[in-house]
Every structure is written in structure tokens, then in C-alpha cells.
Amino acid sequence: MASVEHQLPTQTSLNNVKDPNDVEGQTLQLEHVEKEEFDYTQRAQWLRAAVLGANDGLVSTASLMMGVGAVREDVKVMILTGFAGLIAGACSMAIGEFVSVYSQYDIEVAQMKREKKMSGAIVDEERERARLPSPIQAAFASALAFMVGAMVPLLAASFIKDYKVRLGVVVAAVTFALVVFGNVGAMLGKAPMVKSCLRVLIGGWFAMVITFGLTKLIGSRGL
Prior knowledge:
elongated; transport; transmembrane; iron ion sequestering activity; 8 helices; manganese ion transmembrane transporter activity; ion transport; disordered N terminus
């Protein structure tokens, strides 16, 4: 009797046996995987917009302030110029990101409808649309990130009256922020850390130097 009981499968072992015909269980598993992929896709969309927006806000605002600082030593002029660049840039980034992502959204919706028509399969449109990129979310993330990046040079220059020290502090603050953004971008994109930081850093320095130098040249000629 003991040997027979030993050979009989227990309730636990029966529960662990996967029934290949268990359609409901496989469907639930598939929905769980789709949900995880959806979450990652949505997260990647706004993270990309946020990183690009922060880097753009940092570099463009700092370059604008350096350009004005090349011909005007007044701290108020530099701050007002940077603040105007912050507002204009944030609006521009939001609108541009919204239009760009909405175009992508329309293309994917049209493709989804074509595939549905050709295959004749029953598709849950609400679920499929939820997987598509969100233009509003991307626009908001991009504008907010732009403002965060632009605040770095603004805060760095706000409390320093000496002209040369102010320019040096702005460059140092922007350099530190560029390294941080380069690290974040590398982690999100699974890219080499050093190369990513160098690309961002050299690009930011180049933009500030070119803006400062050309504005200084034009200002010295009285234009």
C-alpha cells in the first residue's frame, strides 16, 4: 500500500503540470507580458523626451547667456536673456515634440487599421491604442525637462556680480550638468559611459564657445 501511495502523484505535483491546452492560462500570461512591454514603451518615450529636453535647455540657455555676456556685463541683462530663452525654448520644445509624436501616432494608427483590414482578425483597438506613444505626455516631459536644464545656468549666474567670475561659474555649472546628463543618457540607452559623456560635454562647450566668440566679434564691430 505504501509503494502504491508513493507512486501516485500528489496534488501539488498535479498543479505544477502545465496543460498545453490551457488557453486561458496562456492568454493571461500573454496579457501580462504585453502589459510589461507597454509599460516599458511608454516609459522609454517620455524618458527620451526628458533627456533631450534637459540637455537642450541647458546648452541653448547657457549659450544664449554667454553670447549676451560677451557684449554686456550687466547681470540683469544676462538673467533676463536667459529667462526669455527658457520660456521660448520650453514652448518650442513642447510644440515640436507634440507635432512630431502626433505624426508618429497617426502613422501607427493608420498602419494598425491597414493590418486589421488585411488580416480580418479581431483586434482590441483600445488596447492597441494604449500601446501607442502619447503626444501630450512627450510634450509635457520635454518642456519640463527643458526648464530644468535651463535653470542650471540661470541659478549659477544669479548671485554673482563680478563679470569674469560669473562667466566662469556658468561654464563650470554647465560642465557639471552636462556630465550628469551624459551619464543619464548612457544608462538609459545602454551606451558606453565615457563616450556618451564626452560627446555631450564637447558639444556643449563647442556651442558656448561659438556663441560667445561670434557675438563678441559682431559686438566689437559695432553692429
